[in-house]
Amino acid sequence: MNRRRFLASIPLALLCAGAGQALAQVPPSAGLRALADRKSFRFGSAIDPEDVGNSIASQMYIDNVNSITPRNQLKWNATEKMPGVFSFGPADQVVGFARRNNMRVYGHTLVWYRTPDWVSAINDAETIRAAMNRHIKQVVGRYKGSIDAWDVVNEPLEYDVPDLRDCVFRRLLGDDYIRMSFDMAHEANPDAMLVLNETHLEKKSDVFEQKRVRILKIVEDLVARKTPIGAVGLQSHFRPGLDRIDPEGMGRFCAALKDMGVGVFITELDASCHFLDRGKVPTPVSYAEVFGDVITIAAERGDLKGATVWGMSEKYGELDEKDTNPGAACTKRVNLYDENNDPRSSIDGIKRAIEAM
Ligand code: XIL
């Protein structure tokens, strides 16, 4: 078949759709990656394997970040659903994408209270210790050459109470499960930066101040026992209308970590307007403030190792997890681009913060 006949055999609508997609959609690069590279700053985003296979979405990551975090694919629930049976297909897709595009990969996460049922059903210390050890060794070891930072323990404290969270690891091993997890990860990859990741530490309230105090105490104990902790992760999921950054409290916290030789990492930066009623959507300026300020405070007061946003575009993004408020101002979490792939002012805030470094 010659070329003309071949083209004629393709339905017109298909040709137009293909051309339209190629031409239309990738928004012009916001230049965040070039800026971050110039400043030697690790700037990343969470990504899903579906985005890797989407030519428009994937280009937006390539243009804007030099680091990616597989959103769900490295969680225990994804990698070891059955005892000792590991699967890495979706994680490998993301890691391969990073390698092809010269990006770093941030691993999320090893020990978290949300585990497969078989893990939470364990009821003796030796079995849970062995399960942790096997899990951490397999996962960290497999990606030794490609993942250079890990959230080792995720959310060790309760969300709105400054106490250690009840979970199978703590129930059977005591508070020491945190130190054990870090030691196991360090053994599997001595070069990786190991992070303790927690919620709300950047926000204003008495309870969150008490969470900062609690985390500092945990880190102090780890450092005293020469446990290799590289940074504390500040998740930074903002709920405009509900949370405010606490520049003073957060700044003091970052500085105290720095004094102990421990860094900070902004690990999951995004905003939810689920708690906001329609008509009270924050002005574009306030997204610039939220996204920019948290990075600026961490950089000015702490030893900031990098920042990651928890998604790139609301067009491909997930619905807000607890979307039970029928009057909510929006249903997607706010990232860098809106539902039409138009840039949000969060980009301006992040630029301002990285420029100032
Ligand atoms: C969330 C993901 O974004 C969702 O896709 C998934 O269904 C649940 O987990 N803190 C964390 C992340 O450490 O792992 C969570 O990610 C968001 C809150």
From TrEMBL:
Alphabetized SMART domains for the sequence: Glyco_10
TM segment ranges: none
Residue ranges occupied by any GH10 domain in the UniProt entry: 29-353
Zinc-finger as UniProt keyword: no
Gene3D superfamilies xrefs: Glycosidases
Swiss-Prot/TrEMBL keywords: Carbohydrate metabolism, Glycosidase, Hydrolase, Polysaccharide degradation, Signal, Xylan degradation
Primary gene name: pssT1
Annotated EC: 3.2.1.8
Catalysis performed (reactions): Endohydrolysis of (1->4)-beta-D-xylosidic linkages in xylans
A Pfam cross-reference name: Glyco_hydro_10
Keyword Ribonucleoprotein part of the UniProt annotation: no
Protein's name according to its UniProt entry: Beta-xylanase
A biological-process GO annotation: xylan catabolic process
The protein's enzyme class: hydrolase
GO terms assigned for molecular function: endo-1,4-beta-xylanase activity
InterPro entries: GH, GH10, GH10_dom
Signal peptide as annotated in the record: 1-24
Family: Belongs to the glycosyl hydrolase 10 (cellulase F) family.
